[in-house]
Amino acid sequence: MTKLTATQQKALALDKNISVTAGAGSGKTAILVERFLKIVSRDAGKVRRVLAITFTKKAVAEMRERVAEQINKLLDKSPAQEQNKLLQVRDHLNSASISTIHSFCASVLREFPLEAGLAPDFNEMDELRSEVFKYEAVDRAFESLEQLPQDKETDWMSFFLALNTAKIRKALKAMLDKPYEMEQIESRFGQMKEEDWRSFLHNIWLEKIRQIVQPWVVEEAIGQAGSILRDCPVPSHEDGSTVHRLLTQFVREQKTANEIEKYKILVRVIQTFTTQKGTAYKNLGKLGTNAGWPQEKRALLVELSEFCAQWAPQILQAGLAPPPGEEDEQWFKYFRMLLHLYEITREDYTRQKKEIGVVDYEDLLLLTLHLLRSNEAVRSELASRFDFIMVDEFQDTNELQWEIIRLLAVENGEPAGDKVFIVGDPKQSIYAFRNADVRVFKNVKRDFARSAGHSDVKQYAGNIIFEDSFRFLPVLNGFINFVFSHILQEDPANPFTVEYNPLVSKRELPGKGQIELALLESEQPVKEEALYMARSIRYLLDNKITCFKWREDKEEETDIKYGDIAILLRGRTHLLQIEQTLRDHGIPFKTVSGIGFWQKQEIYDFYHILRFLNSPDDDFALLAVLRSTFFIIADHILLRFTQMPGDTLVEKLRQFTAQTDATAQDEETNALLKAAVLIDKWLHLRERLPLEDLLHRIIDDLRLRSVLAAQINGEQLIANIDKLIEAAQGFSSSGAGGLSDFLYYLEDLMDKSEKEGEAPLIQEDDSTVKIITIHSAKGLQFPVVFLPFLNQGKSGRSSGIYLEPENGLAVNLAGENNNAGFYYYRHLRRIARQREEAEKRRLFYVAITRARDYLFLSAAIKNNKPEDNTPLAWLQESFLKGEYDLFAEESIEHPDFKLRIVRQVPPVEKEEKESTGFFKEVEQLEQFVRDYRPVPKEAALLEGGMGPIVFSATRIMTYLHDPQEYYRRYHLGFFEHDYEVFARDIYKSDLSLLKGKLVHRYLELLDQSPADREALIHNILFEYEVYDEKLRREFFDELRETEQRALESEKGRKILHAAEARNETSITVRLGEDFLTGSIDRLYRNEQGLWEVVDYKTNRINPTALNREAKKYEWQMKTYALQVSRLYPQQEVYPVSLYFLHPDLLYKVEYSREEIEKITDELLQTIREIKTKFPFIAS
Question: What is the CATH class of 950-984+1049-1173?
Fold first, then answer.
């Protein structure tokens, strides 16, 4: 067998339950394989008596492969007798119970379906269809409330006003997502009475306040309050008299009140005598002023304030002020109503699943647990099959999963003492969003020790810690130990924290490797960090810097390749900038698993194809298909066939095909004819082929894989198409319906599943740098890792819904912000924040421990200091404790490592390497644009004329401003949306452009979601992929300021509160043989009954410059007026307003019918001029 360390040998013991804490690179997978082989090597029949559980299908396949690989190695070294045993083990390997927890539970339910209450032929429902069912159940639960008896309407009206509809929907969805946790909550709180609730809440609060405020503090505060009140008249100042009354009550009630009331009034005193931040008052301004109090009492008041300030910060941080009160009792009533609504929702969701004979992902676990708990015969049968249970990646488990495993290890009513082996690394527990709970690992270790008679986990021989690491070079190992011994520390006040166990490097390559930290000050911080990474990568490759790789049981030095490098990101906020910078430097890369799968253009294109095939009369769908990237039919060609006779576009297309001679037509017309042939073919096949086969046929007919492969991100596009086909196969196999049902399914997913990831790509190649999220990188390692943006905080967006099985559920009430809320809500929020804070630190650990040889860290800084609670701040705190200052050193020489600190982006020491393939083409394209020739006076006219053109206001304005720019942008074909070429221009105004989009989107949706504007903003920020915490705060404040400014303004209220209005209205009108198109921000009926256009302007201007600024948009206003005149020809005038949100100014022009005619003539003349000036083919 493999040579193991002494500690690893201990983990092979079969006489006790064992928990292994395996640090990064310490041989976790190897010990699982060796333990499995030790169990089965003497008796091949034992293969079936080992249950091995892990949490991904990839890990299952890897474990099987590693076992088979190890057997093959042993066969070469073993005598004949041992070889026979090993061959038997290998032959039985396919029957080994190595699976994910979900696969194992599915096999149990299929073996015992009737006992579990399932149909024998049940199917597993995919996660996305489950989402659709849940939303439908929520909708029907709301509909059920329409049948309420009259005497209940008032209560439910109060409920909806307090929580608002959007929050209730989210809460119900969150509850459906966690059925196991909800069972616990219902069991504990479902039948609870109000007095029990009050007692439960007070006990929680009292326990927490006692930990902060000792009894002597209360006595001291009473003494100081008594000194102030002694011989002190009531101050005449209102604030002073309030303080006097409070202190009087405080002193009096300490003699008569119970403990909870004593502490409550003490907290009121502490709040009154300190600032909102918990600091002492420097004067008596907030306590009644100096003049309001006698001279001899003033110093005593300040002294009490200083005393209270010793405890106020801890009380505020723990969320203990204000104490439980009326709002908490009101919430309990709402909570009971929410539970009632949840029961309706859950029953509906269950009914939907039963109707089509499916179970969801959570059902697999929950139904198995119910089966094991309720049917002892089944539990005993399953438990007796396995002599040993091994669980990998145990830090990613949760209580539900562990309870299933635990029940399989019970023998004769008692937990077996030698059956269970768990291995994992609590420091790498980063999947709380998938319900992983790091506390389970700690609790199970404790339970193992107690079952063996040990009160101290560290005394139990089965608690094993792997300290030897085979991943890191010594320099990296030393850095990791130094940093994380400070960052990761177990805190009794936070149950989600874990301790750090130092690692010992087993790679004997001292002096090799490098750690670098770039602290960059720049006006464009994101661009600067992206440039730092690109230049550093080029340096590594151009200078043939080496790394080490294992070849035949030894490490060999080899040149770093692109495939050895990974850029790890916490989010995708800055992904586009990184990608473009890598392109600029000729660096090939692969972005692994982006998000927003169902909103990708290739998915929309397929949706439109299927929508048309399902309903051939759907003109919009057919038009979308023809204009999609699958056919790219020009608008003037589309116009020709739409003029044919027929009631629908498909009839017109058939007429056009029948009357057109393909042999005599130009290439664009032939493209339409070919499209028509394919569309007819698919219409004939739609009823004859299964859904997934139809999709395959469409892909083959379009030669889509070849077309997509030629694009920049072709591999990702193809993977996404394959993922769509998998979804179709899953839908068909579930028996959920045909094409029309799948379309309904797709529409729901595109509308609601914003977080669905793109299809994963194959990562193992040497030719590309990997850009990957830290979560996706877990389990991987790279010789070189870049970890940027360390000075940016990132936290998940809070939904305002907190669900804790031990403590219940709370939703913030309408009108409350993140710093307020009733006590119970603050209590659950604090638990959630503790979990999030602990996991953020572990995420940083996971990121850094992906590096084997080289680690490059970077952070954009201001004023030479870190932002609060960021990875950079944690690093600085760690180094300060070691008496080093990151911001004052050029390098840090520690006995175990050297940290190089750079302050600027490295220069390019060699000439830029010539790009190859696509990158070379892009460079040539950009060069062509930069070096364009002026429009030739003599040019070849397009044969047959130009045909109709669709003009926008922007296109017209571009020509009037700069004809050469118009030629370059539109005639050469480089449109605004051609991101790949013009991305760097976009980034010049990245944030201002994004801010404008956010404001427009917010104002568009504001009147649709008036009750929950905070949630609306968070949804918009997610929609535009703004994940950086600092940017989120900035944009959040900007949107709330814009909203407040607009709603406090009479002009803004008239616009936003109009009874009749439309947002983001797209209008296209004919101008001669051409078209004029545009999108109007808001079209509303004003007080005069006229439809008025409003265009929002987000650029901040000086009020004195209003007319000058508005003049820039003259043609935009004119085109809006013309377009609206075609919609409402009966109006006498057409008002168009530019609403400059900062500083709340309206620039309004009313266009008469005569002026509209003049505008029409001017536009026609301009268009004729454009088509006359540019009727040529660029040669």
Answer: alpha beta
Return the CATH number of the domain spanning residue range 6-122+359-466. Answer: 3.40.50.300
User: Per the annotation, where are the binding residues for ATP?
Assistant: 22-29
Helix H, strand E, coil C: the string for 625-669 is HHHCCCCCCCHHHHHHHHCCCCCCHHHHHHHHHHHCCHHHCCHHH
Cβ proximity of 771 and 713 under 8 Å? no
Give dist(CA 855, CA 482) in Å, integer. 15
Instruction: Name the token pair of 717.
Output: 């596009």
Angle, CA 799 vertex, CA 998 and CA 806 arms, to 5°: 170
What per-residue confidence (pLDDT) applies to 447?
93
DSSP letters of 680-733? HHHHHHTTTS-HHHHHHHHHHHTTHHHHHHTSTTHHHHHHHHHHHHHHHHHHHH
**Tokens 């959920």, located at residue:** 736
Question: CA–CA distance from 6 to each of 15, 41, 465 (Å)?
Answer: 17, 21, 11
Given the DSSP bridges, would you call strands 1145-1152 and 1133-1140 parallel, antiparallel or unpaired? antiparallel
Angstrom distance (rounded) from CA 193 to CA 183: 18
Tell me the two tokens of residue 1171: 């088509």
Q: What is the 3-state secondary structure (H, E, C) of 99-143?
A: EEHHHHHHHHHHHCCCCCCCCCCCEECCHHHHHHHHHHHHHHHHH
| Strand 891-894, strand 897-902: pairing | antiparallel
Q: Establish whether the linkage from the previous residue to 322 is cis, with ω within 30° of 0.
A: yes
List Cα–Cα distances, 1077 to 468, 889, 956, 1074, in angstroms.
67, 59, 11, 10
Cis amide prior to 936 (ω within 30 degrees): no
- Note the maximum CA span of the chain: 111
Residues facing 1147 on adjacent strands: 1138
Spell out the residues 6+ positions from residue 6 whose beta carbon is closer than 8 angstroms to its own. none
Q: In terms of CATH, what superfamily is 504-592+765-796+804-902?
A: P-loop containing nucleotide triphosphate hydrolases (3.40.50.300)
* 903-932 core/surface letters (b: 16 or more CB in 10 A; e: else): eebeeeeeeeeebeeebeebbeebeeeeee
Mean pLDDT, consecutive 10-residue segments, the chain of 1179 residues?
A: 81 93 88 89 83 86 84 80 80 84 94 93 82 87 85 85 86 94 93 92 93 90 93 89 93 84 92 92 87 90 94 91 90 94 96 92 95 95 93 93 94 86 94 90 94 91 92 94 95 93 88 92 90 95 91 86 93 81 88 60 79 84 80 76 82 84 71 87 85 86 77 68 79 69 70 48 72 88 96 69 90 62 90 93 96 96 90 95 90 94 79 43 43 40 52 78 68 39 36 68 63 68 65 76 74 79 74 78 84 83 80 85 83 88 84 88 85 55
Sign of CA dihedral 593, 596, 598, 602: negative
Q: What's the one-letter identity of residue 1144?
A: D
Give me the DSSP letters along 782-831. EEEEEE--TTS---PPP-SEEEETTTEEEEPPTT--TT---HHHHHHHHH
Long-range contacts of 243-246, Cβ-Cβ distance < 8 Å, separation of 24 or more: 243/272, 243/287, 243/288, 243/301, 244/288, 246/272
Task: CATH number for 597-752: choose from 3.30.70.1060, 3.40.630.40, 1.10.3720.10, 1.10.486.10.
Answer: 1.10.486.10
The model carries a pTM of 0.72
| Binding-site entries | 22-29
Give burial (CB, 10 Å; 0-12/13-18/19+) of 437.
Answer: buried
6-122+359-466 and 504-592+765-796+804-902, same CATH topology: yes
Distance set, CA 19 to CA 4, 443, 507, 745 (Å): 17, 11, 26, 44
In the chain, domain spans: 6-122+359-466, 127-177+328-355, 212-324, 504-592+765-796+804-902, 597-752, 950-984+1049-1173
